[in-house]
Amino acid sequence: MYKNSIIASGTCYNNKLYKMVFKSIKNTIYNISNDNSNSQLWHKCFGHASNKKLEKLANKNMVEGMPYKISNSTKICETCLKRKQHKLPFKKLKPQKGSRILDIVHTDLCGPISPTALKGFKYFIIFIDDFSHFTIIYLLKEKSETFNIFKEYVNYVMNRFNININYLYCDNGGEYTSNNFKTFCSEKGILIHYTIPDNPQQNGIAERMNCTIVEKVRSMLAESKLPKLLWAEAALTATYLINRLPYKDSIQTPTEIWYSKKPNVENLRVFGCVAYVLNKNMKQKFDEKSNKCVMLGYTFTGYKLWDIKNKRVIFSRDVIFDENSNYLEEQFSSNQDDNSDLKIDPSASEKDSSNQLSTDFRRSERQRKAPDWLKDYELNSAVLNAEKFLNETPSTYNEIFGRPDQFQ
What we know:
By secondary structure, the protein is an alpha+beta fold. The protein folds into four domains: about 10-80, no CATH class; about 105-260, Nucleotidyltransferase, domain 5 (2-Layer Sandwich), CATH 3.30.420; about 275-335, no CATH class; about 370-400. It has 13 helices and twelve strands. The chain has helices at about 35-45, 50-60, 80-85, 145-160, 175, 180-190, 205-225, 230-240, 255-260, 325-340, 345-360, 375-390, 395-400, and strands at about 10, 20, 105-110, 125-130, 135-140, 165-170, 190-195, 275-280, 290-300, 305, 310-315, 320-325. The strands form three sheets. A five-stranded mixed sheet has the order 5-4-3-6-7, sandwiched between helices. The protein has a five-stranded antiparallel sheet with strand order 11-10-9-8-12. Strands 1-2 form a two-stranded antiparallel sheet. The chain is extended, with a radius of gyration of 45 Å.
């Protein structure tokens, strides 16, 4: 019987043998043995396909010529392990959440970044409070500065909140595993949680924040047409803005949780827009009162700006912004304005050219020497001069008194 259907019938003879007449139902091969070795054979026949796919293929009757049931073999295929092994998936467990400010701090170092920024910065490091998700960023020239930067951060937050950091989540970079770093954390009562090497997912909050900052910087520089060497200023501004944006499903911004006060965003301006800064150092009475700059960021009481003319970063609060113009457009328009101010007088140019033709050029005082290939000519000239001297020399006493230069 097969699925309540007769597949064969026969007659029993005296010697207890049956003569069977089989009825073909399907063009299917049925194996008597249905053990794990059979599963391994099908696994190899299908080019080392997964057992789950083979089981589904057979149980769902998706092909013909296979057994109607294949057990999911627990035997390990060494060939598959050596050629197809992957990282184990990370379990979607609810991560540990800080119960208060500075309970858990995440940190990560990003760099080296090319091109080198102003003042030689190549790296930036971030510290993220897990409870408020408030991020503080520092710029570094070398990775060796990480320890001093971390001490500066610890002193700042401990003086502000008068509480200690409980846990520090970081990777296994050399800047976090040095003896000085470990000793300092031990003295401050900070427990370090290192990630497993080559598993950045375990430090996902800091890694994701690094990615967010870099993407924001890339977009801001592209929109403003500013040179890439200003990436450090853009990173500081990006972090300033991220702290004023909500995090996931939170009803408060990180800045409000950190400072216990809602942030005021009236001072926000488009990054890279043209700014007119009041010139307080006028040398003459009728000089221009404003200098054109580019908006780069924010300070506690003003703005950080890029001085186009002097190519330096300045700070000011007396600023008027033109948010519809950017750095590249302003450079192009200024070049056009400079060219439009030029006026050429044809008669004056002809006069200048005629004067230039009649002007005596300054003579060089360099001593001129004959080239080596003229030495032979100098030798021949000396020979001719000697021959002339010999021919003109008087040979007798009477020839001397007959010469006009006898008394010289």
